[in-house]
Design goal:
Mean pLDDT of chain B: 93
Order of helices and strands of chain B: EHEE
Low-confidence stretches of chain B: none
Shape of chain A: globular
Strand order of the largest sheet of chain B: 2-3
Distance between the termini of chain B: 28 Å
Shape of chain B: flat
Oligomer: heterodimer
Largest interface: A-B, 75 and 28 residues
Helix content of chain B: 10-25%
Chain lengths: ~425, ~30
Amino acid sequence: AAGRGHDHAMLRVEDMLPAPSSSSSSCDMSREHKHGATSSRTRMPIVHRHGPCSPLADAHDGKLPSHEEILAADQNRAKSIQRRVSTTTTVSRGKPKRNRPSLPASSGSALGTGNYVVTIGLGTPAGRYTVVFDTGSDTTWVQCEPCVVVCYKQQEKLFDPARSSTYANISCAAPACSDLYIKGCSGGHCLYGVQYGDGSYSIGFFAMDTLTLSSYDAIKGFRFGCGERNEGLYGEAAGLLGLGRGKTSLPVQAYDKYGGVFAHCFPARSSGTGYLDFGPGSLPAVSAKLTTPMLVDNGPTFYYVGLTGIRVGGKLLSIPQSVFTTSGTIVDSGTVITRLPPAAYSSLRSAFASAMAERGYKKAPALSLLDTCYDFTGMSEVAIPTVSLLFQGGASLDVHASGIIYAASVSQACLGFAGNKEDDD
Amino acid sequence: VGIVGNTQLKTFGVVYDIGKKVVGFCPGAC
């Protein structure tokens, strides 16, 4: 993005292409994003899973997912989140709770393929593991030796509990075992299960060991899943880092250390580096006008917020409040494309398309769930209408130009939003 | 449920404070 006016943002066409198309470019890792910590903050680099900075980038053998595959997987994730939210809100609205031996079939969400990854250290001495970064689920897990049943291929060595002097299984009787959504018991050892909406799953021992977040910072006795049976669409990541609001998540486990505060930033380009910070030091740049309440009564795991309106080109769209309050809104690091209630999306699409038509941009075919696309062939820079998401309390997310357009190619650059099917999805 | 996805969060510092129950959006954070 070269610049931003009140009603439009300028976007360089060459900057539009996300991974995997730009994977041949070099990694742009600035010094400030390398592992580090201050007295009140621990910082880890975040990179795009398929971008040139990813430790997994060499593992693909040139077989990167297509945009259609990325968007189809994203739709799986969105659907599974909606199924889970529907289940939990139905329960909270007064359905009698049964004494259930089994837990909800979907304890997490489909992973998708457009996720970002971070590298963690685990064990003593610490091994390095690149894991999927997920604010939409709680339990952290990695594939483990001896991989009793099945493991998918991963880029790094499997975590081997026998080589860690600080590893211990958690017993079935331990309170921590009760924190799991899906649990079992074998020989007195607590078993965990996570199953995602696309059929991917991981099962194994619920254990504890030292988690290293930076060269200076470690969490002793961190509880995680040591996966002995793992199948699914994990790419070649070693596992997953759960950052939700549930008891097993990293921010909740490390609450005493970091005060339940963390922050992340995703870079504009797939060749860039973002960060994941833990601790109160993440906060100084956030003024009250940039914050919105976390609506914790809506359900577990997810970070619910109150979306109240949308501006396109600086103008507030006429969307009744009930359109947003009927369904609610979550912020999810693992979903690629923002999903809006049908009426809100329809209004956004109409205003966006109208502004693009005024500028004379040529339309292009739809790309999977993205139905408002343009052909920018022959252009070096385009002017697109600004899009702002407005939240309870007055916070505004003025979407960066790199987040307004999702481009498969120069000739197929689309509005990076999609509509839900039903008003109450 | 509506979902704010990672494409729209690019370059924003997204801050989660579980204790204070707030989510913050800082522009131009990376």
